Amino acid sequence: MIELFRVRGIPVRIDAGWFVIFGLVTWSLASGYFPNVLPARSTASYWLHGALAAVLLFASVFLHELSHALAALDQDVPVGGITLHVFGGVSQLDAEPPTPRAEMLIAIVGPLTSFAIAGLCLALDRLLDGSAAFHAVASYLVVINLMVGVFNLVPGFPLDGGRILRAALWWWSGHLEHATRVASRCGTGVALVLIALGALRVLTGDLVGGVWLVLVGLFLQQAARSSWEVMRVRARLERLRVEDIMTQAPLVADMVAPLAEAGIALGAEKVVRPRDSAWTAFLKLGRTRGGRVAVVDGQALVGVVTQRDLQAALATNGAGPTDLARRAA
Q1: Of 7, 157, 169, 204, which is most buried by a Cβ count within 10 Å?
Q2: H-helix or E-strand containing 254?
Q3: What is the phi/psi pair of residue 146, to 5°?
C-alpha cells in the first residue's frame, strides 16, 4: 500500500493491484478505443492517449470517493482513508452514519459527482474547438463516468445504491442491523447476476470481458457478506467496554508505563481507554500490525487488547470467533 497524500487529514493510498488495472485499462484504450476513433496515428500516440485517459479515469474515481469521504466528515463520521485498488476505489468509514439521512447523503454524493464529471466533460467536448484527440478523451470520460454513476446506483450493498437502499430501510424500520441484512442480501443477489452474466459472456467467446464480470461479482459477493458480518460484530462489541475484554497488564514487572512513554512507543492509533467501546479497540486492532492495542487509564498502562480477547468476547456474545483483524483492516 502506497500513501500518496492527504486531504483534510484523510490518507489517499494506492493498492498494488491498482497498477495492474491501470496497465490493463491503458492497454485496452491503446489497442482498441483510440485506433478506432483516431485512425492512422502512431502506436506511441495511442499508448500516450491511453495512459492519459486512464489517469483521468482514476482521477474521476478518486473524486467520486473523495466526495463520499468529505460528506462523511461533514456528518461527523470518521474516515480512515481512500484507497484506489484493482476494482476501482473505496472510502473507509470508521463508523456508521448516525442517521438514515446522513447515510443517504454520504451515499448519493458519489454517483452525483460522477454524473457532474460526465456533464463537465460533455460541455468541454461540445463547447471547445480542440483536437480530435481531445474530443476522443473527453467523449471517453463522458461515457465512463456515466457508467460508473449508473453502476454504483444498483441497489446492492455495499454499492452506493445499496447504501441508499439501506438508508431507506433504516428510516422505515428504525433498525440499522435489519436494514443492513436486507441490503447485503440484495448485494449478494447483484453479485450472483454479475457472475452469471460473466459466465455467459465467456461461453459466447468474450473471455476477457466475461472473466472480469465474474471477478467483479465475486468481489461484490465477498464485500456484501463481510459488510453484514462486520455489522453483527459491531452490534455486539458496541455493548462492551474495553475494560470488559482486555487482558490486564502483567504484574511481574510491578510497574506502570507513563502515558507519554506509551504514546511515543505505540502511537495514538495503538492506544484505547478502559471506558472506550470494544468496537473502538476492534477498529484500532485492524490497523495495528503488532496484533494488540494498549489500554491506558490516566497515566498508567493497565492492559492490552488482542485479537484473542476480541474473539473470546464475540464467542461469549454469540457471534463466534473470526479473523477480526483481517476484517477490520
Answers
A1: 157
A2: none
A3: -65, -40
Q: What are phi and psi of 199, to 5 degrees?
A: -60, -40
Of 174, 202, 237, which marks where a domain is finished?
Answer: 237
- 103 catalytic, yes or no? no
Tell how far CA 270 is from the center of its chain: 22
Judgement on whether residues 160 and 289 belong to the same structural domain of the protein: no
The rounded Cα 88 to chain-centroid distance in angstroms is 9
Which residues of the chain have a pLDDT value below 50? 251-266, 320-329
CB 242 within 8 A of CB 295: yes
**Chain segment 289-304, per-residue pLDDT in tens:** 667 788 888 777 888 8
pLDDT digits (tens, 9 = 90+) for 177-193: 899 999 999 999 999 99
Can the peptide bond before residue 158 be classed as cis, meaning omega within 30 degrees of 0? Answer: yes
The last residue of one of the domains, among 237, 270, 292, is: 237
Half-sphere exposure for 222 (CA within 13 Å, toward CB)? 8
Measure the CA–CA gap between 263 and 276, rounded to whole angstroms: 17
* The pLDDT value given to residue 256: 42
Q: Give the pLDDT of residue 13.
A: 94
Clarify whether residues 228 and 284 are in a common domain: no
- Phi, psi (degrees; rounded to nearest 5) at 318: 95, 5
Note whether 67 and 48 are within 8 A (CB).
no
Pairing of strands 247-248, 300-306: antiparallel
- Indicate the pTM of the whole model: 0.80
13: left (phi over 0), alpha (psi -120 to 50) or beta: beta
Structural domain count of the chain: 2
Contacts for 133 with CB less than 8 Å, ≥ 6 apart: 38, 45, 49
* Identified catalytic residue from 65, 96, 103, 243: 65
**Rounded distance, CA 222 to CA 273, Å?**
33
Q: What CATH number is attached to the domain comprising 282?
A: 3.90.1280.20
